Fold:
Amino acid sequence: MSNPMPSLMQRLRASSLVRSTLALLATRGLSILIGVALSVLLARWLAPEAYGAYLFTLTIAQFLAMPILAGLPTLVVREVATTRSSGDAEGLAGILRWSAGFILATFLVVTGLAAAFLLLWEGGEGTMSIHVLALPLVLALAFLRMGSALVQGYEHPFFGNLGDGLIRPALLLGLVSLAAVSGILSPEAALWLHVSSATATAGLVFGYWLLVCRERVAVQRSRPRYETRKWLSSLVPLALITAASLLNSRLDILMVGLLTAAEDVAHYGIAMQIVGIVMLGRTIVNSIVAPKIARLYGQNDHTGLRRMITSAARISTATALVLFLVILLFGDQIIAALLGEDYAAVWPIALILCGGSLVSSAMGPVGNLLNMTGHERTTARFVWLSALVNGLMNLLLVQLYGALGAAIATALTQVLYHFILVFWISTRLKIDTTIIGRNLLEP
Structure:
């Protein structure tokens, strides 16, 4: 007689994954609404040039944060999940202190370079003050992302995403609203409120970690074990992956802007926002399963890992399919109702991009699996290869078909990238990442 416990455990894990996914979907939906409300409020209360200065400073902060945050959150999630699963208090203490030290040291370097650049660029124009505010924002966001990664490493994905995904923007919206009502809203004030909301949220996230960290006494008393060479060795390819991913996500619209008319850029930009909604489920599922992949792989639980990957692929595909069908059946009507007939060209572009995302979702969380199992160098090589292919295909197809050609190039590149990683993982790691979920270890 078969033992019913494995099937029961499988159902419990699957239901837990579904509940976490639904909770995070609701959180991300609220976050999107808050982001729209915040943008409208700032655009209405600030003059166009002032709002532009605010957005430009946020862009500076994003670029300055790249050396600090590129790869570090992924490393923290993986190492925290691994050290916890093995009861390694020394290793856990080491990665926590090393990560904080890395943020501070890198921030000092970035601050020095940024200060030198701003002095040379601004000269005596006297407009430097607003751009300098990017620096404290970078530091606050860095510790917020580290805290979120730490909580995710403890397999608390909902709260790990709740801080930066909902609490910070909601707090910022409330503060900006109060400043607007009080008549003191300015670009500088908005940026200081951004810093304040990020700092306060970081404190909440670390406070939550102290509540869930059962090993906190052991961690505090343990002598930290630093594996700097190993962590830096992982951090470099993870940073390259982040940089290549950023390049991949912006290369198509850059080509459209360089090679076609401005209205094509508008159409493609709106289509990319639609794709972001379709990919929302996959993004959330990947954040949930990342620490679980590291733990199961560290425990050499191949069966549990395969089932987790299959569940993640199926949930991601299901959410993407539902949203894709909505766009397929009603997308042209929704776009016309919200934006007008001038944006009718958005629909076919969005369909192509969403179709590529749907097929990629069916291939499973391939990048997450490689990064969480110590194969980030392989991910980096294939991501940069896909960026090169994406650039060449965009260069050719954008000149032939405009924004539609960019969508075709991007979708094909995305599918090709995932197909190659599926093949590599199936032959090297003997894991089927697709929605089929075959056991490749069976004779």
User: Anything to note?
Assistant: The CA atoms of residues 2 and 8 lie 12 Å apart. The radius of gyration is 23 Å. The chain is about 85% helix and 0% strand.
